[in-house]
Amino acid sequence: LRAVGKTGIEFFKFQGQDLLKTYLNLSSSPDYEKACELVSEAVKDYVDGLCDEVYIVHNGYKNMITQELRIEHLLPVEPAKLQVDTQSNSALDTEPEDDALLNELLNTYFEYNMYFALIDSLAAEHSARMQAMDNASKNAKEMVKALNLAYNKARQESITTELIEIISGVESMK
Known about the structure:
Elements: E1 2-4, H1 6-14, E2 21-23, H2 32-47, E3 54-61, E4 67-75, H3 90-93, H4 100-173
């Protein structure tokens, strides 16, 4: 189990989970090279048999109001069921025989997924912060309006009381 970001690390520590490795300051400013390092370490652990599966779990941006938990299954790769055309295709005849192309594509796929998860999580965080700031601004405006109304009522009561006292004083002098 690896955790990226202060909140994720604190969550797993609070749950009593042992973390293999932690990464700070990666989710606040995503970097492609660091994302590549992180995912390559996880893939290496899978290849070495230290884990059975590799998942990326992150907070994802859905829209301005909603964020959602996203779970991406990286390893083992389960290729989609392909329908093979029985006609000869010249593009398939020119592909390399070894697994070099497949390995390179898989590495790029893993790196992209990790980097996308970091960027998506950052977008969701910024959206949540913008929503919170918008709500705080609305609440502050409502509070200013309520306090202004209370101030005006208190001032009006004070003026009314002073007028009543003045009128009462004038009436008592008659």
